Amino acid sequence: MSTTTSEPKVFTGRSYGINFGRTLTLGVSRIKYEVRAYFRQGDSVFFTFLFPVVMLTIFSLAFSEQDFGTGGETLTAAAFYLPGMLAAGLLLSGLQNMAIDIAMERSDGTLKRFAGTPLPIMSYFIGKIGGVFVTGVLQATLVILVASVAFGVELPSEPSKWLTFAWVFILGVSTSAVLGIALSALPRTGKSATAVVIPIALVLQFISGVYLGFSLLPEWLQNFASAFPLKWMAQGMREVFLPASFEVLEQSESWNLSGVAIATGLWLVLGLIATRLTFRWIRKDS
Prior knowledge:
two-stranded antiparallel sheet
């Protein structure tokens, strides 16, 4: 009589087979972890989550005596700057925070440890992008509430405006998050991540109509900014929250929502391609 002994199963590498149920379950768990970890970091909360609120408050108070208007219609500073701050929040929570966070996880060995576990790569990305989406929703809600309650900004009443807000927000936060993952490959170390990423985000905000009226910029700078997604995200938000008379201040003298969707969607696709080509659990030169 013979007996057979089964060999113990040993995990020898990352499995690329997809079990959608398990992947989604682990991804949702990662979302919860990412949101908790985000709000435990004081610097991240201030410089990404609360930063648009702080800037909206500063501009609203600094220009409280000034009216912004065109075509005989005027707005307060808070109403004028609200769309830009909402767009900036998408960039900060998505691109800036994601790029720095992943770069630091790669540098301190967190990603290397993940590579040695059965965690599906899609679960990791679901956690990261889902965490950005949750914090983005909370941030946008806070910015809108502060503008409305503290500064008396009149919010849109038409359902179509809020529908536009929804798709611009979803497309914008998705694009920012994916570009953040791709950009995380640029810093060589976690310590250099903030020095590499923050200037990029800051320059984009200044040239995309967040802190300065886009129509006030030189034409060549407007054309340059139009090559990047933040300008289009801010333009979509302006369509939602600014009166129709302000449409003439746009580069094409229209809100051009189709252009917003095309440009932002194109950057989403480019970000996905860049992420596929550049994402590594560890750096090749490490």
